[in-house]
Write a structure and sequence with these properties.
globular; 851 residues; binds pyridoxal-5'-phosphate; glycosyltransferase; 34 helices; transferase; pyridoxal phosphate; alpha/beta; single chain; EC 2.4.1.1; 10-stranded mixed beta sheet; carbohydrate metabolism; Rossmann fold; 47% helix
Length: 851
């Protein structure tokens, strides 16, 4: 290896500055090198520099000396891509050869986070790149910061999809992810006078170096029109769909690299484009404006992600999006991915389409239509295949979150699919009626078609009838799904319901987000834990090791200082590393109960200013919020305003200075999560029991050594069982108690009347203490709490405050706290999404690793 890069092919001005001779390049990590198939660029510092400069010069068309940070970022991204390319092509070649069974993950959302760091980690190139860029006078950290994350999801559901495809690639399981390449992802949140303001997320504006568009592989997706009956040449009566309009779906491929294992799976996101023919016809009619309008209309389909989380809106464009990506994906799989001569009767041996919530459920009638109308199968054959090719993951328990599409709209947009759904329903209800002796009440309860308030297709029912398996996302959620949401179906389809508890990828949420902790772990237990996370158990004895505890604490402090730097630069906020960092980051939703957190903060504040406690007697805390509200969700936006109002007062009141601080950095996303979570001491998971399906934020925190204060809900329950009661602050009503209280008649104001400290907190808000004396601004929030409080924040208030008092006291015992934090890390290995994937494979997919 030469000391300086060979730059013969490049302009002299791009010779890296080498005033002092560069240190000899370190040999790179051997495992990654050994796994790089022939054809990858040389894995040496010099080899890297050559590739990087080539991309800068010939790809970006700039000299190093005149290049912008963005030029350098794009050149680096493309260079790193080269290292993955041979593995990607090899993965595709082997898959084509073996035709091993794989997963097609259908998801309307992928909340991917930044790609560069993950690609560097997967290739094992980080050190080489850091050194090589150093020789060019370029700082890797600055280039990483240049990347705008693809925010193609709202929150947990989209992030889950991203974790799952990472795990499948790392476990060498064949998987193709299908979704939508939204031109605008989740909005960028800013605050103006404490209120949320949404801005368009132009994530593509500075270039998209990770995607590979393939316009030549476009699929056509049709809509509207009508259906006809006809007799085919064999005398068989058939239906056909005479569509009214169509759009082109252009695939954009993304690499999904496994962690240093030589495998690269594919994520295929579709972009909508007007078809030439469609344009041309109108254009030829001489109506230029109409031609342009048609183009805009078509391209609107993949223009923007709907920012609703847990509350579907039933908008026509949303149904267009769903059908657009599912139809393109199924056609792509059947007509392009499968070999030409593939016998579709064997489809279930080759693929399982996993439905991430109900958003892709229109794929069920679509596959039926393809098999019957296009491939000329008969109904029974097609239905037998379809039932084996789909499985459905339910993500909610809230009735308002169960998606329905009005028959009117669906019939207008997808008339053939409505026919197919009706027939599926007819045959299904016939079986129900037969089995239950004509029990008409049950038949109407189980109908895929709801009659009230309007005729509508219940997508969850359709998915349940068609799916080989239906799973919930945490033990409690799966149980409630069977007992409360779909009990008739559980009875009718024994064995269909199962659970797979969610997980998170430790590559992104431990290794990339928390390098300091990762190093400490590896020092203690060696390598290998990153792909076998249960090995974190080996850390347990270290909880008793004083030196290890000191180092663990230093890691936490280091992460708080890192967060401080990020927030100073981003928002001008400072974080004191001696404070207990109390963090609630997740979408703003009433069921998640950010208001309960606010009531705690106001209570602490009130205790100090009223003189009830001396400032010196409370544990200094910094509260951090991160939360976007759906733009049309009024009360959620009011709550954001309230949090900012409380922050503005608390942070400027000398009486609580150095004791209480409230920070709400705007635009919570994956990038911010990666900085906030590793710094946290306390993880707020305070949903009303029975409302949060699983949560995955809770898992990220536990794995990064935060203790949880949480209700008996979702995956909190499994976290507590694993980490132990002593290392978890449990509070609040249990799910059956919640049900009992609803049944009895919940009167929130009675809690207000009977708990003086709750009354004082609510009165402070109502009297305008956090709104410059204005009593109107937060009246909707106060009114909602006192007279509605659907999620029982007031009922859980006392238990929450008492649990928080215990937290404050516990944090003062540094050693005991650190011990608990270490045990949280050591006992949370179960929450790796690798384990989730193992369970999906065993219980649902039956797709063994391929190579
Ligand atoms: C993990 C994650 C979520 C989900 O958080 P919950 O607490 O489970 O709701 C949402 N948004 C982002 C950016 C995440 O990383």
């Amino acid at each position: 290896m030469s000391e300086n890069p060979t730059t013969d092919d490049f302009p002299v001005n791009d010779l890296p500055e080498t005033g002092t001779p560069a240190a000899p390049a370190k040999p790179k990590a051997t495992h990654a090198l050994a796994l790089a198939p022939v054809g990858s660029p040389a894995s040496s510092v010099d080899g890297f520099v050559r590739e990087f400069l080539r991309e800068l010069n010939y790809g970006q068309g700039v000299a190093l000396s005149t290049s912008s940070v963005n030029d350098q970022y794009l050149a680096l991204a493309r260079t790193v891509r080269h290292y993955l390319m041979a593995r990607w092509l090899e993965t595709l070649r082997r898959q084509a050869e073996t035709q091993a069974k794989g997963v097609a993950y259908l998801s309307a959302e992928y909340l991917l986070g930044r790609q560069l760091g993950n690609a560097l980690l997967a290739t094992g190139l980080t050190e080489i790149v850091e050194e090589g860029l150093g020789k060019c006078g370029v700082d890797l950290a600055a280039l990483r910061a240049q990347e705008v994350e693809p925010g193609l999801g709202n929150g947990g559901l989209g992030r889950l999809a991203a974790c799952f495809i990472d795990s499948l690639a790392t476990m060498s399981v064949p998987c193709i992810g299908y979704g939508i390449r939204y031109e605008y992802g989740i909005f960028r949140q800013t605050f103006v006078e404490g209120r949320q303001v949404e801005q368009a997320d132009s994530w593509l504006a500075l270039g998209a170096p990770w995607e590979f568009p393939h316009p030549e592989a476009a699929q056509i997706v049709t809509f509207g029109g009508h259906t006809e009956k006809y007799t085919d040449t064999d005398g068989v009566e058939r239906s056909r769909w005479v569509a009214g309009w169509k759009v082109k779906a252009i695939p954009y491929n993304y690499m999904v690299p496994g962690y240093q294992n030589g495998r690269v799976n594919t994520l295929r996101l579709w972009r909508a484009q007007a078809t030439d023919a469609f344009d041309l016809k109108i254009f030829n009619s001489g109506d230029y404006e109409e031609a342009v309008r048609a183009q805009t209309f078509a391209e609107n389909i993949s223009k923007v992600l709907y920012p609703e989380d847990s509350t579907p809106q039933g908008k026509e464009l949303r149904l267009q999006q769903q059908y657009f990506f599912v139809s393109a994906s199924i056609h792509d799989f059947v007509n392009s991915v499968l070999p030409k001569d593939f016998d579709l009767h064997k489809l279930p041996d080759r693929i399982i389409f996993q439905l991430n919530d109900t958003h892709p459920v229109i794929g069920v009638p679509e596959l039926m239509r393809v098999l019957i109308d296009e491939k000329k199968m008969d109904w029974d054959e097609a239905w037998a295949i379809t039932q084996q090719c789909f499985a459905y993951t339910c993500h909610t328990l809230l009735p308002e979150a169960l998606e329905v599409w009005s028959v009117d709209l669906l019939g207008r947009l997808l008339p053939r699919h409505l026919e197919i759904i009706y027939r599926i329903n007819e045959e299904f209800l016939e079986r129900v009626s037969e089995r239950f002796d004509g029990d008409q009440l049950r038949v109407s309860r189980m109908s895929i078609i709801a009659e009230h308030p309007e005729r509508a297709v219940r997508m969850a029912y359709l998915a349940t009838v068609a799916g080989a398996k239906v799973n919930g996302v945490a033990e409690l959620h799966s149980q409630l799904l069977r007992d409360k949401v779909l009990p008739d179906f559980d009875e009718f389809f024994p064995g269909k319901f199962t659970n797979v508890t969610n997980g998170v990828t430790p590559r992104r949420f431990v290794r990339l987000a928390n390098p300091a902790l990762s190093e400490l772990i590896t020092d203690a237990i060696g390598v290998g834990w990153l792909t076998d996370l249960e090995r974190l158990r080996e850390l347990e004895p270290y909880a008793e090791d004083e030196e290890f505890r000191d180092r663990f604490r230093e890691v936490k402090a280091h992460n708080k200082r890192r967060l401080n730097r990020v927030l100073v630069e981003r928002d001008g906020f400072t974080v004191d590393d001696s404070h207990l960092l109390d963090v609630m980051v997740k979408r703003l939703h009433e069921y998640k109960r950010q208001t309960l957190k606010v009531l705690h903060i106001v209570t602490e504040y009130e205790r100090i200013i009223s003189g009830e406690v001396k400032p010196a007697d409370i544990t200094p805390r910094t509260f951090i919020f991160g939360a976007k509200a759906a733009p049309g969700y009024k009360i959620a936006k009011d709550i954001i305003h309230l949090i900012n109002g409380v922050g503005a007062v608390v942070n400027n009141d000398k009486r609580v200075e150095g004791r209480l601080k409230v920070l709400f950095p705007p635009n919570y996303n994956v990038t911010l999560a990666e900085k906030v979570i590793p710094a946290a001491d306390l993880s707020e998971q305070i949903s009303l029991a029975g409302k949060e399906a699983s949560g995955t934020g809770n898992m990220k925190f536990a794995l990064n050594g935060a203790l949880t204060i949480g209700t008996d809900d979702g995956a909190n329950i499994e976290i507590r069982e694993l980490v132990g009661d002593d290392n978890f602050f449990l509070f609040g009503l249990l799910e059956p108690e919640v049900e009992a209280l609803y049944a009895k008649g919940y009167v929130p104001s009675s809690f207000y009347e009977s708990d003086p400290s709750l009354k004082r907190a609510i009165d402070l808000i109502a009297q305008g203490a956090f709104s410059d004396g204005d009593r109107d601004v937060f009246a909707p929030v106060v009114g909602n709490l006192l007279y509605e409080d659907r999620f029982m924040a007031l009922a859980d208030y006392r238990a929450y405050i008492d649990a928080q008092d215990k937290v404050g006291a516990a944090y003062a015992d540094t050693d005991a706290w650190t011990r608990s934090a270490i045990l949280n890390v050591a006992r949370s290995g179960f929450f790796s999404s690798d384990r989730s994937m193992r369970h999906y494979i065993d219980r649902i997919w039956h797709t063994p690793p391929a190579f």
